[in-house]
Specification:
alpha/beta
């Protein structure tokens, strides 16, 4: 009677240990599988983060290079524009050295002007200070020193005008002399005996 109980107990213990071993193998197997898959997932995430950081650093380098390049281009364009503006404004900044012009400035009646201005007096000498849209000279034997004039119209005779800059010049009178420092204006000369030209000092 005792032998079969011991055999049964041993058999039961053996079966239990075998089943526990099987369970531990399956648990360990799944656990090791899970840890392996999680390790693979972590490795993939690291690779992705490296790729992302490489992309972001690459874009940062590209952006900084592009912005630096565009910044240098805009600054060079700005300096080119500034130099072009200074070339256009040569007449505005140049000192007056011509003796006849300086004589008109020193002896002429100094008048602040803007917009449109008309000179109808004969034999007058004027030093006009300010920018003008239109200057119309109808008087005879008139001498004028002026600054910037958009349109200069001379209808009188024996008129002399010095200006820093003239955009448009219309001559309808006789014996008219006009000199300027800036760029050459658009000239319509319908007069007689006119003398026009850029002043070289």
């Amino acid at each position: 009677m005792r032998l079969p109980k011991i055999v049964l107990a041993g058999t039961a213990a053996l079966a239990l240990s075998v089943s526990l071993g099987a369970c531990s193998f399956s648990v360990n197997g799944s656990g090791s599988s899970d840890s392996a898959s999680s390790a693979a997932t972590q490795a993939e995430q690291k690779d992705q983060s490296r790729t992302t950081s490489a992309d972001s650093s690459g874009s940062a380098k590209t952006d900084s290079k592009d912005s630096a390049k565009s910044g240098s281009q805009s600054s060079s364009n700005g300096s080119a524009k500034a130099s072009a503006d200074s070339d256009d404004k040569d007449g505005d900044d140049a000192p007056i050295t011509d003796a006849a012009w300086k004589d008109i400035q020193s002896k002429g009646q100094r008048t602040e002007v803007s917009g449109s201005y008309s000179v109808q007096d004969a034999g007058s000498t004027l030093n006009l200070v300010g920018d003008l849209d239109t200057l119309t000279v109808q008087g005879a034997e008139t001498k004028i020193a002026a600054e910037d004039i958009d349109t200069l119209i001379i209808q009188g005779s024996d008129v002399t005008v010095y200006a820093r800059d003239i955009d448009n010049l219309q001559i309808q009178g006789a014996n008219v002399t006009v000199h300027w420092l800036g760029d050459d204006p658009v000239i319509q000369d319908m007069g007689v005996g006119s003398t026009t030209g850029k002043l070289t000092q």
